[in-house]
Structure formats: structure tokens, C-alpha cells
Amino acid sequence: MVTWSRRRWLAAALTMGMVSRSWGQEAQVDAVRLATTTSVDHSGLLAWLAPQLRREAQVVLQVLALGTGKALAVLGRGDADFGITHDPEAEAAFLAQHPGWLRKPWLIGRFLLVGPKADPADVEGRPVTDAFVRIAETDAALFVSRGDQSGTHARERTLWAAAQIDPRARLGTRYRSVGQGMGPTLVIANEMAAYTLVDEGTWLALQGRLPNLEVVIASDPLLDNPYAILVRETAWKNGVQDPVGRAARWLWEAREAIARGFEVHGVHPLRPAP
Amino acid sequence: MAVLPVDVQGVSWPSEAQPVLRNLTWRIAGDGITAILGENGAGKSSLLRLVAGLIRPAVGTVTWRGATTPPAAIRWVAQQPQFLRASVATNLWFAALPLPGRWSAKRKRISAVLERVGLAERANEPALRLSGGERQRLALARAWLAQPELLLLDEPTANLDPGATAAVERLIQEMRSSGIRIVMTTHHLAQAARLSDEVVFLADGEISEQTPTRQFFAAPKSVAARRFIRSETPWWFRLPE
Amino acid sequence: MNHALEALSQALTLVVRWDETLASIVRLSLEVSGSALFFGALLGLPLGAVLGATQFRGRGLVVALLQSLLGVPSVVVGVVVFLLLSRAGPLGFLGWLYDPAGMVVAQTLLVAPLVAAITRQVVEGARERLAEELTMMRLGFAERLFALIYDCRFSLLLALFSGFARAASEVGAVMIVGGNIEGMTRVMTTAIALETAKGDLTLALALGIVLVGIVATIHLVTSGLEALARRRAEG
Fold this sequence. Notes:
By secondary structure, chain A is α/β, with parallel strands linked by helices. Chain A folds into two domains: 30-109 and 226-272, D-Maltodextrin-Binding Protein, domain 2 (3-Layer(aba) Sandwich), CATH 3.40.190.10; 110-223, 3-Layer(aba) Sandwich (D-Maltodextrin-Binding Protein, domain 2), CATH 3.40.190.10. Chain A has helices spanning 6-24, 38-43, 45-57, 68-77, 88-97, 128-137, 151-162, 167-171, 182-192, 200-205, 233-237, 243-253, 255-261; strands at 30-37, 59-66, 82-85, 101-116, 143-145, 175-177, 195-199, 213-217, 224-232, 271-272. Chain B is 36% helix and 23% strand. Chain B has a six-stranded mixed β-sheet, with helices on both faces. In chain B, α3 runs antiparallel to α4 and α4 packs parallel to α5 (162-177). Chain C has one domain (19-234): MetI-like (MetI-like fold, Orthogonal Bundle). Chain C has helices spanning 2-17, 20-53, 59-70, 74-85, 100-136, 141-151, 153-169, 172-178, 188-198, 201-234. The longest helix of chain C is centred in the middle third of the chain and has 37 residues, at 100-136. The radius of gyration of chain C is 21 Å and the shape is globular. Chains in contact: A-C, B-C. The B-C interface holds B 52, 54, 72, 74-76, 78, 81-87, 94-95, 97-98, 125-126, 128-129, 142, 146 and C 129-130, 132-133, 135-140, 143, 147, 150-154, 230, 232-235.
């Protein structure tokens, strides 16, 4: 008969203890890499969703916040697992170039045109293309543009095109392209008392820090900001085993609840995509 | 502003506890050249600096015609004179800055002084490129420019070859002839014998003799002086006539 | 590797063609940093010279303070200037924020301590060598200062170059105070940061090549001149 030494008993006991501990632990949490825009990141939506996503989908998001263009490039290269963007044209181009990817319309936010309290171009409450024309024609009006490859900038370009104005040509030095994210752009616009386009989420998040600016146009169909989830079809179909699919599905299916629950400074800036 | 007489009264330096110069009293007056002789480390250079006003005594006073701050009409030449990183002429130009008079006159004096010291051809050359003897001559020129009442020279020919030494000694004699009172330190006995009218012998931190040159070499009063002369001169040494 | 080589060759093409966007950014950089050098030297040279030439009670403290100013990061200077020049700040009425004028202010604050510190060191060295002579030449304070500065003139040229290099290479202060606004406050360093972040390496590389080229050229010219002139003055 083999007599076990005291040391061996101790080792065996420890091993048993460790094994039983892991049985009692919560189920495995997976990390998934998300490529998204700085606006989404700054709005606080992802931070707000994180605990629920972890609890209910066992997924933790590693967020890469970039401009829309760069986010799509990163997705295409495979450096991220799925994406959330808000530039339908760019998204369509992406789908054309990358078959096997799906676009799931998720939430709709909106852009706001904000400007100086004095409103020198008198654009308050008007249709947004009208407003752009007025800004171009008013000498005292300044406009700050993001000037990067962001969804916000893309929308701004669309609006100028709709108003049939080349902002650099018409406004000259009154058009200031800063090449930075939404937060810094707003700070600059506030400092210069200029008009600028901003997504509602970031605007609400920065309330109180921009004393010289106020919302001049809030409701205009051209200002709708549709967010979409971009995910590989294979991941989407495998929504139980594949953590990427799990994350994407959970987010998409919970969109109504998210729209109802997510509020910033008392406002619900998002509505679910139909 | 007058300089002479310079009165050194009861001066100790650098400190009372460890003095190199000890309760030293000395008066500089009259004309001509005074040579300060002494062993190395006796404090000759420091004594000169005290008279120049560059250092202050720990105990005692130095006054210049009664004044407690050194007057403008003193010039001092270091053993290794320093110059600005500039040409010979530019260095003299800087020396002429504080002098009274119009610049046209000053410029003429600069040329004249360069001629007298034999550096006129080197006027536009960098001062730092001059040889040892030429540097001494430039330093003398710099001092001469100011037409000082009292000129203090610290071992002016210490590191020079005989040719350069002779040239510098000639200049010193010329400056004496133009009326400048000169006090120079030297450890070269023959030079003191050649140039000076009066010898001041520094030993044990004080002036043990202050006598006219001929008398000093003929009959030195103190034992230290006698020992010094004997140690520094060959047996055949005789005072020049 | 191919991608990098391609970007490099495209960048070189931009430089050789002297693309207009590139040119306007370079011009603004030179104006801003050049002005900062001018004002920084105007402040720093006299301060450094006086510190190097004089003795006074508390001098050691002032010198130590000056040395510590050298260590202030450019972003900190940027934040301080931002607070001063913003609308909410005491100098907001000047309207210099997000304007080249503010950038010049910020960079001047970076250049001046550097020029002052180098000048002090150089002049102090000269003073140690020349103190007794200058005293016995009976020069007044201003004349003495002039003589010391004249003696060190070559080393001071290098001080000026160092000041320019610091201004031209920094990105923190000009980004915060200038805002990197296209056509208005976008300089080489901030443009490089932006273009790289956008993924457009061509312009970023081209600007980098020009920036390094400018700094290197000025350094070569300055030290060459200094060596030449020094040889003439010292032999």
C-alpha cells in the first residue's frame, strides 16, 4: 500500500479546492473589439451599456474610437470584430467592397446646428439648408467644421452640397476647419462664438461647458443621424457561440429598451430604428 | 582724480587667522619704478591686487589719496593678460570706451599707442593669436591708452624669452619717461636692478625693506634680503652702473 | 515595407513639387517660430547676460528658477496661455486664441528661458575669464555687459538656434493655443499629428522631411558660421 506524505495530501487538497472554485465562478466573459466613432464614444452610450452587456451577453467591449472613415478602414483590415457607425453612404460603400458583412440599422440620433447666442445669421428655427445659406451670406457669421473623416463632417458636407454652397470659397476665413474630434471642435466653436454641427449625444454630454453656444436648429429631417451595426454574416448567424455575434445581436435586439433607458441631462437623444 | 599717494595701513590678507600678508604698512609716492621683490608665495601678486583695488584686505585699509575706493587713473596688467575674442584694435577700442574725449581723438591715440608698442601691423589680427611677448605689449598698450597715474605690473616678463623681455622692458622704461608711476613685481633680480629706482622687499608677510635700488643691492639691511640676493645671483654679480 | 516606401516616394514628390498646401503650412510655421525666436531672444538675451555678468544676493535662486523653467512641458505652457487668452480669461479681449498671435506668445514663453539659460552660462564663462581685466579697464556696467556679450557672440548664435529648434519642433503648445485650424493656425507639427491620425501619411511624411530639413540646415549654417568666425577671431 502506498503511503502518501503530508506534502502530497496538501497538494491534492489545494488542487481540489481550485477545481471546485472554478465550478462556482460565473460563466466565461469574452472580450470583443468594437470600431466606432468618437461621437458615439463621447456620448457616453457605450459606457452606459457596458454593465448590462457584460451581465446579459457575457461580453466586454474593447472600444476603438476613431473617425468614421478610419473606423471602416480598421474593420475592413480585420483589426476590429464589428463596428457601429453613422454614415449611410460610407457604410454602403463598405458593404459593396466587403461582401459577407451585414448592416443592421440600430438607433437614430440627431445632429444639431448650434451657434452663438446672438445668432448673427438669424437662423433659429429655420430649415437647415436655409440656415447654411444665411450663414454663408452673413459676414459676421463664423462656421467651425470638424474637417476630419467623421460622420459628422460627412453630414456637414452633405448639407453644404444641398445648399449648393462651397463653404471654403463662399466663407473664406470665416470657415474654420479644425481637424479634430467633436469635443475639441465644440470648445473651439464656443471660444469663437461660431456655428457648428454637432451630434446630440456629445452636445448633451458637454452641457454647461459651452456658455457661448446654444441650439439653433434641432428638428429637421436632414439632421437625422442613423447609427448602424456592421457585423460579419457568419458571426451574426452564430449568435450563441460566437461572442461577436452575441454582442451584436444583444445590442440590436435591445434597441428599444436602450432608446427608452439612455438619457443625458434629462433628454432621450436616441430612438430605435424601425 | 588723483591716485597718489597710496597708503597701505596695517593690512592683513587673506584672513587674520592665516595671513599671507601680515600687518603690512606701505606708502607709494613720488616718481619712477618700484620693484617688489620676494620669494615665490610671499604675496607679491596679492599685494599688487590690493593696491589695484581688486581685492580687499581682511584687516587694515588701502587708501588712494585718502579715498577708500580705487580711482579711475590706475591700470593693472596681469601676469597672463586676458583679451576679448576680437582683433587687437577692437580690444583697444573697448579699453577706450570709458575714457573721456571725442572718438576721433581716441582713434588717433589707439593708432599711436599701437605704433609705440610695435603692434601696428597686427591691428586687425585676433588678439588671442598673439605670442606671449606680443600679448604683454598689447596689455601695456591697453593700459597706456588710459594715460594712468599709477601702473601696476605683475611679473611682466615672467614667461618671455630674452628678446621679448628686452622689448617689454624698453616699453616699461618709455612709459616711465612719459611720467607714469610704475610698481612692478618681479622675481628676476637683474631686471629689478636694470629697471627700478626703488626696491620693496616682501618677506614673512611684511615689507622688510624699502630702499633705493643701488643701496639695496649694495648693502641689503635685512638678513632675509641678503639671503635672497645670495640665493638668486651668481657669485660674480655686480650691480650695473 | 512597400506601403512605407510608397508613402515616402509620394511624400518626396510633394516636397519637390512644393505643393501649395505644404508650402502654406511651412510658411506659417516659419513665421510663428521665427517671431517667437525674435521675441524670446529679446527677452532672454538681456536677462541671461545680466545674470551671467553680475553678482547679487539671491542670484543662485534666480538661476535655479530659470533652469527649472526649462523643464516645463510645452503642453503646460499651452494650457496656461490658453487660460490667459480665452474669452473667460484676463486677456480674452485680445482675441489671440486660435490665432497665430497666441501661438507666438506660447512659443515665446518656451524660447525665452532657453535663450536666457544658455546666454547666462556662456556669459558667466566669459566673466570668469575677464572679470579682473574688465574691472581694471574701468568699464561701467553697460560697457562691461557689452564687452562680455561681444566676447561670446558666437556661442550666442548657437543659443538662438537652440531657441528656434525648440519652437519649431514643439506641438503641445501650438495645438492647444492654435487649434490646428486649416489655413489659419495649422503648422508643421500639428499638421503632422493630424494627417497621421487621419491615416494620410503622405502629407505627414512630406512635412516631416521639410521640418527636419529646415532644422538641420539652420544648424549646419549656424555652426558653420560660428566655426568660421571663431577661427577668424581666435586663430
